[in-house]
Amino acid sequence: MLQAAVALLLIYLINNSCYPSYSSLCVREMFESFEVNNPEQRDLQQRCVEWFTSHLQEQLLGGSPSLATALAPMGGKATDAVDVAVLLDFVKAMAEEVTKSNIASISNIVRELRNKGNILAPEREHDGACHQAVFIACGWISMLYKPKPKPAGALLEIYPTTKAHGTQSSSPRFRSQDTFPSNVSAAEYGMLSFGRLLAALGQRLPQRQFTGGGSPVPVPPINASNIYFSNLVRVGKVHIEWVDCLTEHLVLDERTRTLKLFRYPAYCALICLSAPGSVAFLNKLADDVDHDTASLSSLNTTASQQPPFENFCREILISFGVIFAQDSRSRNESKKDATVAAWPARIRDDVVFRKLRAKSWQEHTLFTYLNSPPLRSNYSAQSDFPFLGAKLLRLQEYMDAQTPTTFGPCFGVISIGLGVLQVALMVLQIGLDARSN
Asked: How far apart are CA 209 and CA 212, in angstroms?
């Protein structure tokens, strides 16, 4: 009896203690905190690790037959479930192949993992499932796309990236954005490079729109007030759509007034605060440049040698800072939306976004660590946002187009009021002149 009580007490203490779970330890081992992090940054990194652990557990909760087949301990014998530790062991093996390969294709990764014994499923019988397993794991770890854990047949499948906004009588014929297939053949497209595979599904890897060499065409500055959240909502009448894909961040649909924002700032902080070696494979995965068509000048720039995935995540965080936390009105507006549950719980409770709503973004140690640009009224699309600058400029153009129509009635009322006041002053002046005479 006493032993049973002690055992129950130990289980309770483990489940309710501050000690990390085994799954969390596995994530922490994969994403090691950068050695130069100060205590506050290390604490934030560990909080992001805890969040990512729970996020992976949620993804695995629904089950994935493809992952279960590919990660079976014996050839062809599927397991009932895959836990975070097993998934991360699989990802580590993938990461090693991605880092050392010239072309990161699904087929190449599957072949190498099978040669090393990381995949034991029979080749002919379960080849499609193995391709799907690599595709699913890459999507969950990189968040460059959102894979379906239970794809149909031997297909590589993602969730549609567009969401309908409008009335029920809107016709699907007249879409405001291009549409792409949500699935492709694993056997046919698995041989393509990772970048080309995603392009077939309508996705794009993070790409620098501006390089360090400058642009022959003058690029206007980004006026911070144009992208403040308070102005986007009040002036631009913009609707925020929270998305799961990094590459959809800041995609604007002007017809429906919809602005897509990445819903997991904590993921970007995890990538930036982790040791460079921990995210090297993600940089390689995102650096799928078509060297046959890329210009020689862009390949030789210093910017092209910088880790693309880390820098893309860094810019996403800085864009969140400018949009939501540079001015007090935007912070208050976002607090209000979070209070009334206008946003999903995941973004309301995000460890990074919650801190942003408290004070100006430049006061957070995270942005000091990111070597963020100084807080100012105007930002450079070329030097401050080489990845996101083009999207921010488009958002600025949209806001500039909204300002006249939005403030026009106000200016009309003000003009009429000034005219009435001027007439009243003239009448008063005439009366005073007549009295003095």
From this structure: 10
Q: Name residues whose C-beta falls within 8 Å of residue 148's C-beta, 6 or more positions apart in sequence.
A: 136, 157, 158, 159
Q: Is the pLDDT at 264 greater than 70, yes or no?
A: yes
User: Which tokens in the block code for residue 58?
Assistant: 């949620």
The length of the chain, given as a count of residues: 437
At 168 the three-state DSSP class reads coil
348 and 233, same domain (yes or no): yes
What is each CA distance from 44 to 37, 84, 125, 364, in whole angstroms?
A: 10, 21, 45, 11
Residues 193 and 338 in one domain: no
Structure tokens at 100: 């050392």
**Residue 107 covered by a domain:** yes
**Does residue 262 sit in the same domain as residue 396?**
yes
pTM of the model: 0.82
Q: How many domains does the structure of the chain reveal?
A: 2
Residue 261: the pLDDT is 95
For residues 246 and 316, the answer to whether their CB atoms sit within 8 Å is yes
> Could you tell me if 155 and 253 lie in one domain?
no
Give 100's pLDDT tier (boundaries 50, 70, 90).
Answer: confident
pLDDT band at 12 (very low <50, low <70, confident <90, very high): very low
Q: Is the pLDDT assigned to residue 133 strictly greater than 80? A: yes
Question: Residue written as tokens 């986007």?
Answer: 232
